[in-house]
Design a protein that fits this description.
By secondary structure, this protein is α/β, with parallel strands linked by helices. The protein has 2 domains: 3-192, Spore Coat Polysaccharide Biosynthesis Protein SpsA, Chain A (Alpha-Beta Complex), CATH 3.90.550; 198-271, no CATH class. Helix content is 39%, strand content 24%. It is built from 9 helices and 11 strands. The chain has helices at residues 14-25, 41-48, 65-78, 97-102, 149-154, 167-177, 214-231, 237-251, 255-271; strands spanning 3-9, 30-35, 54-58, 83-88, 92-93, 110-119, 134-136, 145-148, 181-192, 198-202, 205-209. Strand 1, helix 1 and strand 2 form a beta-alpha-beta unit. The chain is globular, with a radius of gyration of 18 Å. It starts with a strand and ends with a helix.
């Protein structure tokens, strides 16, 4: 089975990027890098421009995550890759990831396959207690996912309005609405991190602090409200969103700016079409 790796970059740490690309090259037939107008593009080109296994597409501006994912899907289909491993620029794949995914690609309704991962910030060991080889999931992140590009394109692709966050959850919801399945294997397949996460205890409850800057908070909030309107379901996102607000406003830095970003994102999300 031919598999392509796809990575979207934006001001990456080039040492980490090189390490991550070298790791994934051992498991795929080709790697496509979509660069969203990074200021250190010259450094990226110096690493991979002479590598026949790596293609770099340079966007003239930052078009966002969803747009870049669509570029990866269409490039893959054009070059004969139905299955594509999508990765964040800082995701490091462990040996055997693709081989563990491969047999599940024969399941006719499966459109996206992911697995457990180690997080640089924390570990949730309850996640590892499940006994099945895999579970059907409502959603998973795009990083570390083996995605059927043909099925994604058939469903209309990623929503380009999702500039930063929620693009993966939106695509998962769309796939399920079209009758496709998303599965998560019960093995640890890669190293990943969701920003810089810390934890605080409040009334016996552990609260995760994501430390997003106000701009990202705005886009996350706007996209979440847009998602709720589009799919008419919350999928448990509202509780998580409420805890994010509490964490940002009471325990993080720049509290007023972040509160303003949440409120602006909510208003823009309601008006967003």
């Amino acid at each position: 089975m031919k598999v392509m790796g796809g990575i979207i970059t934006y001001f990456p740490d080039c040492m980490d990027l090189q390490k991550n690309v070298e790791a994934v090259k051992k498991q795929v037939d080709h790697v496509l890098i979509i660069d969203n107008c990074s200021g250190n593009l010259k450094d990226i080109l110096s690493l991979f421009s002479k590598d026949p296994m790596v293609t770099i597409i340079r966007n003239k501006k930052n078009y966002g995550v969803a747009f870049g994912l669509n570029q990866i899907m269409h490039y893959g289909m054009k070059h004969g890759y139905t299955w594509i491993l999508t990765l964040d620029q800082d995701t490091f794949v462990y040996p055997g990831l693709i081989s563990s995914y491969e047999k599940y690609t024969e399941m006719p309704q499966v459109a996206m396959i992911n697995c457990q991962h180690n997080d640089r910030n924390y570990y949730d060991y309850r996640w590892y207690e499940r006994k099945n080889a895999y579970d059907y999931e409502r959603a998973c992140i795009t990083s570390g996912s083996l995605i059927n590009a043909q099925k994604v394109i058939k469903c209309g692709g990623f929503d380009n309005k999702m500039v930063v966050d929620i693009a993966d959850l939106d695509m998962c919801a769309t796939l399920r609405e079209h009758g496709y399945d998303i599965i998560c294997l019960k093995r640890i397949g890669y190293l990943h991190s969701l920003g810089h996460v810390t934890k605080v205890k409040i009334f016996g409850y552990t609260l995760k602090l994501y430390h997003y800057n106000p701009k990202r908070i705005y886009f996350y909030t706007r996209n979440l409200i847009y998602y709720l309107k589009k799919h008419r379901r919350s999928d448990g996102l509202l509780l998580g969103f409420a805890t994010r607000i509490v964490g940002s406003v009471f325990f993080e830095e720049n509290r007023l700016e972040k509160l303003r970003a949440y409120l602006t994102g909510m208003v823009r999300g309601v008006l967003f079409k």
